[in-house]
Amino acid sequence: MAVFIYAVLINGYGFWIMGADKRRAEQHRWRISEKRIWLAAAMFGSLGVWLGMHAFRHKTKHRSFVYGVPLLFFAESALVLLYIINRK
């Protein structure tokens, strides 16, 4: 149950961080660093970051995000599946 709650929270944070950075960019305010966005994605929040990219149309011209975030999501998904399969 704790893993499910963590997944919801980190992906919610990933989604939120993309929206917050987009708003800040539009208002010419201090931005959230790409390092922080990548950190959220790497902590199994890549789905939230990926959905946020598309929902807010943010970082969609950055190749590292366009290709890296989905790749990270699929790698994280494979790790989760391997964990579930080997857990039994």
UniProtKB/TrEMBL annotation:
Keywords noted in UniProt: Membrane, Transmembrane, Transmembrane helix
Membrane spanning residue stretches: 37-53, 65-85
Highest taxon of the lineage: Bacteria
Protein's name according to its UniProt entry: DUF1294 domain-containing protein
